[in-house]
Specification:
Keywords: ATP-binding, Nucleotide-binding, Transport. This is ABC transporter ATP-binding protein. InterPro entries: AAA+_ATPase, ABC_transporter-like_ATP-bd, ABC_transporter-like_CS, ABC_transporter_ATP-bind. This protein is an alpha/beta fold and about 250 residues long. Helix content is about 35%, strand content about 25%. It is built from nine helices and nine strands. The chain has a six-stranded mixed sheet with strand order 5-6-7-3-8-9, with helices on both faces. The chain is globular and about 45 Å long. Bound molecules: adenosine-5'-diphosphate and magnesium ion. Magnesium ion binds next to helix 1. The site of adenosine-5'-diphosphate (ADP) has 11 residues, from strand 1 and helix 1.
Length: about 250
């Protein structure tokens, strides 16, 4: 499989008025074409910093990243603009890139129809539920047809029930559209339900503690994150990851 992302010996130290702080310490991982790969780590472990380096928002201190393709970035908050309709929110990336061509508009129309949002295209964000807004945000990210999706805790602002539903929605969209995704999360269950492979980050300065491939033997037909949560392996993975993750004891 082609590696879309390669992260080699990545180290990041921030220099602030209070001194220097090492956030990432020789991080290595890759993301293969078609997989959902998760970085699981406690708050403050440097997950967003890794994504910011991948998008070139910030520079690494040491090491390098290789990205074979274009990036779409989806954030924790949906960042929809209140004064633009759903359609105008979705096409904003194309407008910025000056790529609002017919092929792109056709792709957006297909995505909106497939994922149940076409009837809402002329509405405004405040008229939609939190879950629908996250679907809109993902379709906006997909509108420029990126090769890899970077998802920075995209479910954490949603309440629990909505989060379970949106896990399924987003998973289905990523897999149906044959996208590759790098998900960062502090939520063990979400990582297991969503991922093909998980790497566990230690607390700061973050290192990769271990990696796991996630398999569910007895799922018939198409897998959904919700179904995974009911499988016997789910609890086994949870117990393993629970011991590996540094449990929120950073002060
Ligand atoms: P996570 O996304 O895992 O919660 P972050 O990558 O946001 O963690 O942050 C890791 C640590 O780096 C935090 O302690 C944060 O305060 C610090 N940090 C992040 N960005 C900067 C910056 N630009 N300058 C200084 N410190 C930063
Ligand atoms: Mg973060």
């Amino acid at each position: 499989m082609e590696k879309i992302v390669e992260v080699n010996d990545l180290t990041k130290t921030f220099y602030t008025k209070d001194g220097e702080m090492r956030v990432l310490d020789h991080i290595n991982f890759y993301v293969e074409q078609g997989e959902i790969f998760s970085l699981l780590g406690p708050s403050g472990s440097g997950k967003s910093t890794i994504l910011n380096i991948l998008t070139k928002l910030i520079e690494p201190t040491e090491g390098n990243v290789v990205i074979n393709g274009t990036i779409g970035y989806m954030f924790q908050r949906d960042h929809l603009l209140d004064w633009r309709t759903i359609m105008d929110n979705i096409t904003i990336g194309l407008e910025i890139l000056k790529r609002k061509d017919q092929a792109s508009l056709d792709r957006i129309e297909r995505l909106l129809k497939t994922y149940g949002l076409w009837d809402f295209k002329d509405m405004y964000p405040k008229e939609l539920s939190g879950g629908m807004r996250q679907r809109v945000a993902l379709i906006r990210t997909l509108s420029v047809d990126p090769d890899i999706l970077l998802l920075d805790e995209p479910f954490s602002a949603l309440d629990y029930q909505t989060r379970l539903m949106v896990n399924d929605d987003i998973y289905k969209i990523i897999k149906n559209e044959h996208k590759t995704a790098l998900l960062v999360t502090h939520d063990i269950s979400e990582a297991i339900a969503m991922s093909d492979r998980i790497a566990v980050l230690s607390k700061r300065p973050a290192t990769i503690k271990c990696e796991h491939e996630i398999h569910f033997e007895n799922i018939q037909g198409e897998k959904t994150p919700f179904e995974c949560r009911k499988m016997p392996e789910f609890q086994q993975y949870f117990d393993i990851l629970w011991k590996e993750i540094d449990n929120y004891d950073i002060g």
